[in-house]
Hints:
By secondary structure, this protein is of the alpha/beta class. It has a single domain (26-95, 106-337), classed as Zn peptidases (Aminopeptidase), CATH 3.40.630. Helices cover 31% and strands 17% of the residues. It has ten helices and eleven strands. It has helices at residues 26-33, 37-47, 60-75, 152-169, 188-191, 193-200, 236-246, 271-274, 303-322, 331-337; strands at residues 79-80, 88-92, 108-116, 127-133, 139-143, 146-148, 179-185, 209-215, 225-229, 253-255, 280-284. Strand 5 and strand 6 form a beta hairpin. The protein is globular and about 55 Å long. The chain starts with 25 loop residues before the first helix and ends in a 6-residue tail after the last helix.
Amino acid sequence: xxxxxxxxxxxxxxxxxxxxxxxxxxxxxxxxxxxxxxxxxxxxxxxxxxxxxxxxxxxxxxxxxxxxxxxxxxxxxxxxxxxxxxxxxxxxxxxxxxxxxxxxxxxxxxxxxxxxxxxxxxxxxxxxxxxxxxxxxxxxxxxxxxxxxxxxxxxxxxxxxxxxxxxxxxxxxxxxxxxxxxxxxxxxxxxxxxxxxxxxxxxxxxxxxxxxxxxxxxxxxxxxxxxxxxxxxxxxxxxxxxxxxxxxxxxxxxxxxxxxxxxxxxxxxxxxxxxxxxxxxxxxxxxxxxxxxxxxxxxxxxxxxxxxxxxxxxxxxxxxxxxxxxxxxxxxxxxxxxxxxxx
Length: 343
């Protein structure tokens, strides 16, 4: 997440739910149950391991992370939607790599893209994007002898969420009517590079993308609360509220943006979808004193809390994926946010 450290509220609204859980189909329930704290802990441990050396863009650790995610997508049976029949979409680094020598080739950076085809013969031509950024800031100034900025929360937590969602939605019988595009991007920390490239070079027309649910930093802070930025701008806000209230067993309240002065809506990868007319939700728990430092390590992640957030996103994806109508913008928000397209 590209932002400075911010203060947290001392008081978060308590979870109060008036609705009862809706029964899920056996297949959807099986998918839900694949999302576990143990899996979250294991996957964050891989992505934010010291061996990845902070996953800067570009770096060998970032490439290793992209290859790991691609292998996971392949194991779930997703359709590769990157370059030349692979899961990897490469984009040119703006101005070349930081250490580029005169006359050298422009080194590139990876996004990872996989598609789960929807179950409905018509609605499968519409897509929900589930996104997160897999990069972090690399190696920095040492603190108590540790110079690897692991980025466990920022954003191995969100990247792990996308992988968990891919596994859950791929369970036989659990895929929704609409297709789902799973996307992990790089270059977020340097200026939303990967998502900017993807939004201009998507394997599906941007008009076919009905929503982007973006996940960035969901492994720390409050136990039973997740901030969902962008709720007020489309009816996706009502969707996530409805899902949260219908499933009190998740013990996860979806609250509105509590930092409006920070303009987070315009500062992470979802914005590259919103500016092109795609309604978005941004799942974000805020920063903490370990943000962009060597103490953002896997041992500090609350994997049990994160697993409940990912389950909430899974159920929201099912709701959006099976709805009769695609999500709709608030007209005033559309006029303010969506940029005129030149083509």
